[in-house]
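Quick one:
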Amino acid sequence: MNNPDYDYLWKDVITSLFEEFLLFFSPDLYEMVDFTVQPEFLEQELLTILPESSSNKRTSDKLVKLQLKDGNEQWVYVHIEVQGDYKRDFPKRMFQSFYRIIDFYEKPVYAMALFTGERAAYNKDQYFYEFLETKVTYSYKTYRIASQSETTLLQSHNPFALVVLAGLYAIKSKKEKNLTYYFKRHLMTILFQDKMKEESINRENIRKLLLFIDKILTMPMEEEIALIREMKPIIEREGSVVGLSIEDTVLGQYLLNEARVKAKKEGRAEGIEEGREEGKAQGREEGRAQGRELGRREQKIETAVKLLQLNVSLEAIIEATGLTKEEIEKLNLNK
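Output:
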């Protein structure tokens, strides 16, 4: 079982669900933004402003340019303190990031720090400098996942509340590994049974949430498979609507492997049956061979159609069924 790459996971989910992220953490700023203009993620600018962002210290930072409804620009700087350990110089680093953005680009900045670790409560939300009559006070928004209420997060209709809840569960499961199974099952049940019914949450967001939950709460493979088997009735009922990413989740990999095994078994059985029906005394072997081939092909087609409904990549379907690219594309047109 590989340890999650927390830096990448948080950075990726904020990028994927940025509109929901901003609404969750700053409703006032959200109301000012014109989202008909796509947010611009300034990765290269961040490297210029903060050269150390190429190191592990800044790998999770985000700098985003937004268009406001009044026509002005607003820059949002998000620092994600993934491990959340106490750092005496953290407020100073937040201040440095702020004044560098101002100095380089002269843009208004909204800054926040997201603490995703257990000990994050020790980090301050203000930088203060004083030397004789010279004083500087810089305050910024902070959010500590470890301090959040599970009940409050569950009551929220914002999809990003589920991201935060997954982060909270990840913190708790570090202490109690046996709780990971319960936490992951709980989140997946919410996704498939509750969130699927909310018209305000589109299917693409549910898929992104599933990817985040799947990777931030990892378990030994036997536990992952046990969870999938337990939830299989719900998955079969709702999964095709979500558009699961077969390549990116444990759930998807399991379903793909299951489809391969099923195709092989059913194709063989149907082929034998067809062979028996068509086989005559003199041409029995030939009839069986033709029947087996027919049965296998029909099963391959049926499997390919199911995988297309799950939004499986073309390459994965070719690997699972053995059908050609042209045959699968023809099926996709006829769905």
